[in-house]
């Protein structure tokens, strides 16, 4: 997966499609168990490639995400636990992509202005927007990916050569840039923070000068520790991708081995790895971990490359679930809250996108 994709949902679209193209015949699919509800934002288009992406869910069951209207223009939304939608765009936005929500309902993400320059933003529960840019941001601009309960945001910005640099922005607006040791400096290379926990620890990955990915964790004090999952490949596009960190420092993610086969992993705060596959699946990837240590993600089964969502409990028990009407195109879980409720998205038989909320 290339880390040049600047939008969370576009990154996963490309990633999952590449997995589907590689899927081979496997054992029978496991039983499916989940309460599954499709969510479509008002105003979302119904043509191929249009529709709704569920991206983040907080402890209260409030969901945020992005939808594409009939003109393929992207907008943000918030959906309450009771199902009420509010659509939004930051002032000056030509293109809005939502990436996260915290426990108070503050949303973060990025938007592109009329010059196609990206800016990070915060949207308060009352609907007030704050836009921000990293000093030195150029090329694509500033992209925000994750927000914690304190309102601290992490993400990356691009320099004039399209190299990536991580940053952390405090609730008061103080922005600190950082780079992983041995991160490359070429186009699409550099440091890519993806998740921040309640204490301010950050995880993500960096791309070295050979275009190999490596995970990292950055402590609240700024100490940065690189890591590689056992068995991670060292070739172009291979390596370790860390996607989510919980409040005790446990990290969930994926890695590509030397044959470009993809596996899921959990890394404890002490650096101990557990790799896993969903039962019977050819490919498994973890996208989000909650406070209980439960992990969600997606896995591929069968000769028709059927994609299922899963939840793996902290004790290792799996539950797989499908999206009614999705065929082989999802669901693709993106976030799990402390209650074990999952949000994400899938494509129907007509390639229209739909968000979902599922409780295994």
Task: List descriptors.
single chain, 360 residues, mainly beta, Methylamine Dehydrogenase, Chain H, four-stranded antiparallel β-sheet, 1 helix, 28 strands, 4% helix, globular, disordered N terminus
Structure description:
The chain has 360 residues and is mainly β. It contains one helix and 28 strands. It has one helix at 8-22, and strands at residues 35-39, 51-57, 63-68, 74-79, 85-88, 95-101, 107-112, 118-123, 129-132, 142-147, 153-158, 164-169, 175-178, 190-196, 202-207, 213-218, 224-227, 239-245, 251-256, 262-267, 273-276, 283-289, 295-301, 306-312, 318-321, 332-336, 342-347, 353-359. The model is unreliable at 1-6 and 10-30 (pLDDT under 50).
What secondary-structure arrangement, pairings included, does this model have?
Layout: H1 8-22, E1 35-39, E2 51-57, E3 63-68, E4 74-79, E5 85-88, E6 95-101, E7 107-112, E8 118-123, E9 129-132, E10 142-147, E11 153-158, E12 164-169, E13 175-178, E14 190-196, E15 202-207, E16 213-218, E17 224-227, E18 239-245, E19 251-256, E20 262-267, E21 273-276, E22 283-289, E23 295-301, E24 306-312, E25 318-321, E26 332-336, E27 342-347, E28 353-359
Antiparallel strand pairs: 1-28, 2-3, 3-4, 4-5, 6-7, 7-8, 8-9, 10-11, 11-12, 12-13, 14-15, 15-16, 16-17, 18-19, 19-20, 20-21, 22-23, 23-24, 24-25, 26-27, 27-28
């Amino acid at each position: 997966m290339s880390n040049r994709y600047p939008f969370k949902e576009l990154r996963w679209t490309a990633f999952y499609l590449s997995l589907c193209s590689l899927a081979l015949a496997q054992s029978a699919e496991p039983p499916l168990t989940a309460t599954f509800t499709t969510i479509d934002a008002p105003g979302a288009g119904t043509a191929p490639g249009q529709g709704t992406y569920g991206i983040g869910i907080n402890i209260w069951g409030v969901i945020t995400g992005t939808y594409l209207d009939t003109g393929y223009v992207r907008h943000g939304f918030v959906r309450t636990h009771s199902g009420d939608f509010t659509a939004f765009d930051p002032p000056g936005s030509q293109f809005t992509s939502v990436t996260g929500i915290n426990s108070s309902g503050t949303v973060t993400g990025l938007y592109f202005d009329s010059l196609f320059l990206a800016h990070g933003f915060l949207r308060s529960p009352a609907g007030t927007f704050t836009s921000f840019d990293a000093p030195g941001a150029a090329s694509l601009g500033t992209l925000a990916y994750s927000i914690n309960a304190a309102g601290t945001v992490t993400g990356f910005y691009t320099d004039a050569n399209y190299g990536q640099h991580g940053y952390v922005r405090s609730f008061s607006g103080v922005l600190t840039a950082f780079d992983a040791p041995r991160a490359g400096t070429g186009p699409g290379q550099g440091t890519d923070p993806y998740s921040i926990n309640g204490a301010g620890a950050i995880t993500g990955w960096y791309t070295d000068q050979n275009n190999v990915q490596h995970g990292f964790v950055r402590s609240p004090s700024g100490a940065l520790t690189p890591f590689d999952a056992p068995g991670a490949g060292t070739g172009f596009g291979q390596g370790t991708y860390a996607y989510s960190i919980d409040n005790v420092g446990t990290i969930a993610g994926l890695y590509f081995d030397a044959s470009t086969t993809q596996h899921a992993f959990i890394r404890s705060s002490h650096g101990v790895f557990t790799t896993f596959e969903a039962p019977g699946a050819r490919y498994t990837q973890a996208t989000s971990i909650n406070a209980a240590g439960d992990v969600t993600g997606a896995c591929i089964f069968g000769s028709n490359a059927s994609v299922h969502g899963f939840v793996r409990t902290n004790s290792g028990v799996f539950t797989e679930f499908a999206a009614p009407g999705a065929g082989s195109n999802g669901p693709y879980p993106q976030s799990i809250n402390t209650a074990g409720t999952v949000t994400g998205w899938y494509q129907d038989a007509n390639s229209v996108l739909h968000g979902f909320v599922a409780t295994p």
